[in-house]
Flagellar protein FlaH
Amino acid sequence: MARDTNLLSLGLEDRDRLNKELGGGIPRGSIVLIEGDYGAGKSAISQRFSYGLVQEGASVTLLSTELTVRGFIDQMHSLEYDMVKPLLKEELLFLHADFDSGGAFSDDDGERKELLKRLMNAEAMWRSDVIFLDTFDAIFRNDPTFEALVRKNEERQAALEIISFFREIISQGKIVVLTVDPSAVDDDAIGPFRSIADVFLELEMVEVGTDIRRQINVKRFAGMGQQVGDTIGFSVRSGTGIVIESRTVA
């Protein structure tokens, strides 16, 4: 069967079934929202996406608010996703948003940086086929301009300005992936992103007996290839990476 050229494959089909479960890949020109509480697996899914995309020939930028380059390499290595070669070959651009101990993104003289504006003006990070912002709510919460709008109850206006920028990026056929912890940001701020996301994946942890299981709830998937499952069970295993769990009947 011919591959849909509008989809960027998530690859690794010999290792897991994630690409198949998601219909063969992510449509070009999409905003992807991955939402989930702390520990639900947002970063692990982003890392699996980014590794598979690079293996399939896509260029990727991954901005992390949590991991340093060393931490990123170590974590990817623990999941058997070797990112050293893609980093050296510049197939993957990894960036660390370095918040200080107080949670602020500051320069050498202590002045709060206009983080969102700086990101939008960082041309190099938007050259890739796929751009991950993990976690996007941390960038939101630590930007002084956004904070000022929050104090005026104008979160929605700030969100719409950022969305306008993202729409310009995806009009070039690129994909922007945002991970968000919904417990860390107001619904008024995240609501517009939920509304405009072409692909909206909600990660959750579910208690099954004494076990905690993770699952991806596919809330929206515009431009899907083959059929996409509504719910995809998965686990994160050291030395293996993401494992798609077989469906079980309760």
Summary: The longest strand covers residues 211-221. The chain has a mean pLDDT of 86. The chain has one domain: 7-244.
